[in-house]
C-alpha cells in the first residue's frame, strides 16, 4: 500500500478565489461547530511582529519605534533564528513561526503598490497602509503620529444594526388569519436597517440606515445568522448610501462616534493610490532633509562631548585646576605629604 504524500507545511498553498475560500471556511466552521469564520485555515502559521512594548518584564513604550524594534530583533528574533538554524529538526514541533513584519520608507509608495501589496495579498490579504512615526514613543489610545490609509472604497464603519419590520394591520377577511385583531410585523417584507454608533458605554446614537436590495436581503437571510442587534461592517457606495460588507462576529460593539467621524473625514477626503504616489517625491525630500538635520545634530553632540571631555582632562590646566590628570595642586601636595 502506497503511503499518501504528506504536504510540506512550510510551503504556502495556492490561494483560493474569495467566494470559494468563503465556502471552505463555512464548511470547516460547520464541521468544527464554530460560529465565527475568522480562524486560521492555512499553513504555515506565522506571528508577525511590528512592535515591541514590553520585553522580559521591562517596558519599552517610552522608547522610539526604531529602538523598540531593535530590542526585539536583537533579544528575540536573532537568538530565535539562531536556535532553529542550529537545530532545524525542531521546526516541526513549533506551533507557529515568528517573523518581523518588514517596514518600508514612507516615500517608497510606488514600490508598495506595484510590488509588495500585490504579493502579500496572495498570502494573507491587505486592506491599506499604516504610516508610523519612527521617532516617537508608543502612545496608548489614539496616536496622532500614526496615519492609516485605506482605498476610498474600503473605508468602513462597524455599526450596531437593528431591524424594523413594517407593521401590518390584520385583515378580517383573511381566511388564514389566527383571529388576532392586533397589528403585527410583516417578517416577509424587507425591513428598515437602522444603524447605530457608540457615544458612551451602553449609549447608542442613530447614524442612518443601510440600503439593501431584495437580492441582498435574500442573501442575508440565507446566512442563517441573527441579524437584529448584530455588528455589521458597512461602506459607502457612489450614491453615498451605507451598504453591507460583512457581519463582524468577532466584535462585541460598534465603533465609537469619534472613530466614525474620523472615517467619514477620510471618505470625504478620498485620498487615492495615485494621490499618494504623486506625493512620494515631496515625502522623500522632507525625509532626506530631516535625516540630514538629525545627522548634523548628532555630529554636533559628538563634537561637544569631545570638547567637554577635553576640558575635564586638561593635562595640567583647565576646569579642574592644574595638576596631573586633573588632580589639583592641593590634592597633589596632600598626596606627597
TrEMBL record:
Enzyme's top EC category: transferase
InterPro entries: mRNA_cap_enzyme_adenylation, mRNA_cap_enzyme_C, mRNA_Capping_Enz/RNA_Phosphat, NA-bd_OB-fold
SUPFAM superfamilies linked: DNA ligase/mRNA capping enzyme, catalytic domain (SSF56091), Nucleic acid-binding proteins (SSF50249)
Signal peptide location: none
Enzyme Commission designation: 2.7.7.50
Compositionally skewed regions (Basic and acidic residues) per UniProt: 298-307
Residues annotated as domain mRNA capping enzyme C-terminal: 154-277
Keyword Transcription regulation listed: no
Chain positions covered by the region annotation Disordered: 298-337
GO BP terms in the entry: 7-methylguanosine mRNA capping
Location in or out of the cell: Nucleus
Pfam family, one: mRNA_cap_enzyme
mRNA capping enzyme adenylation domain: residues covered: 43-150
Keyword annotations: GTP-binding, mRNA capping, mRNA processing, Nucleotide-binding, Nucleotidyltransferase, Nucleus, Transferase
Domain of life: Eukaryota
Biased composition (Gly residues): 318-329
Gene Ontology MF terms: ATP binding; GTP binding; mRNA guanylyltransferase activity
GO cellular component: nucleus
Name of this chain's protein: mRNA guanylyltransferase
Species whose genome carries this gene: Ajellomyces capsulatus (strain H88) (Darling's disease fungus)
